[in-house]
Design brief:
Layout lengths: L1 H6 L5 H32 L4 H4 L3 H8 L4 H18 L7 H12 L5 H18 L4 H16 L10 H18 L7 H11 L9 H14 L1 H5 L4 H17 L4 H15 L4 H9 L3 H9 L4
Helix pairs in contact: 2-5, 4-5, 5-7, 6-7, 6-8, 7-8, 7-9, 8-9, 9-10, 9-11, 11-14, 13-14, 13-16
């Protein structure tokens, strides 16, 4: 065992160099395995599930490794399984849900946390009812806790945090009716965690859900146009429009819901909100022709 040998300080310089070379080769090999598996699952979907048994021992092994990168690799394999096999993947849930629950709170490895958060979002979106209890009772509280940490938006954590914000949006889309009396608090925590702008793959879905909520149930986010909530909305929408790369239709939808929210405000109140927007963001919106 490499880690055991290192811990026991049994390695000289040559031994350590050899181990590093072995780890590099192994890492490249498992990356290729993961890419191949991704392609096979994407092509064959649920039809591949019976053959996944052949992959299971390796994925289990990597889930038990102390190295976060190894566990991240295994979680990404199971993420792909859920994404492309859908509900048929649930027969393997017992092999990876506990590992994802632990990874969601893994403060030492943002990449591992990001892989786990992505998996939760995929469970909500594609996994079916078999994952509902885990997503709602275990994963959602963990993600809200991590999103709320003081260091959530530090550079090393931002992609993991934004993946969690995206995953919470996916959970809300599917399971908001199952959250009962907690739904309002979860929505408010999600809204407070905006904006997101760094992960180009996840950003559009987050703002699509924001537009949906503001059209269907603005009260849940804005509490009767509470000034603090409206101020936060303007900040979020302006930053999204100025900084993020959004599809034109989505950008126009965001402009529309913001204008709708501000329709009842007088010119002085609108001017006060606009004055708090950084000058470079004001200029970006003008350059894009959005105002």
């Amino acid at each position: 065992d490499r880690e055991a040998a290192r811990a026991a300080q049994e390695l000289d310089e040559d031994d350590e160099e050899q181990l590093l070379e072995e780890e590099l080769i192994e890492g490249q090999t498992v990356d290729e395995v993961a890419k191949s598996l991704h392609a096979v699952l994407k092509t064959h979907g649920p039809a591949y599930v019976p053959l996944f048994q052949n992959m299971l021992p390796l994925a289990r092994k990597y889930l038990q490794e102390r190295d976060p990168a190894a566990r991240q690799w295994a979680i990404c394999v199971f993420d792909d399984l859920v994404e492309f096999a859908g509900p048929a993947s649930a027969q393997f849930a017992g092999d990876f849900l506990d590992a994802i629950a632990v990874a969601l709170r893994q403060t030492e490895s943002p990449d591992l946390r990001q892989a786990a958060a992505y998996g939760v979002g995929i469970m909500a979106k594609s996994g079916g009812d078999a994952y509902a209890d885990f997503v709602i009772a275990t994963a959602l509280p963990a993600m809200l806790e991590m999103i709320g940490r003081p260091d959530a938006r530090e550079t090393e954590n931002i992609f993991a945090t934004e993946n969690m914000v995206s995953a919470v949006a996916k959970v809300l889309r599917v399971y908001v009716s199952r959250l009962g009396g907690d739904a309002q608090a979860v929505l408010q925590a999600w809204f407070a965690a905006l904006p997101v702008c760094n992960d180009d793959e996840e950003v559009p879905g987050v703002y699509e859900y924001l537009v949906q909520m503001l059209r269907e149930n603005p009260e849940a986010l804005l509490a009767g146009n509470d000034p603090r909530a409206v101020k936060h909305l303007v900040k979020v929408v302006v930053e999204a429009l100025a900084v993020c790369t959004l599809p034109q239709e989505l950008a126009q939808a965001l402009v529309g819901v913001m204008q709708g929210t501000l329709a009842s405000f007088d010119d002085a109140a609108k001017a006060a909100l606009w004055a708090e927007i950084p000058r470079e963001q004001q200029q970006a919106l003008q350059d894009k022709g959005l105002i």
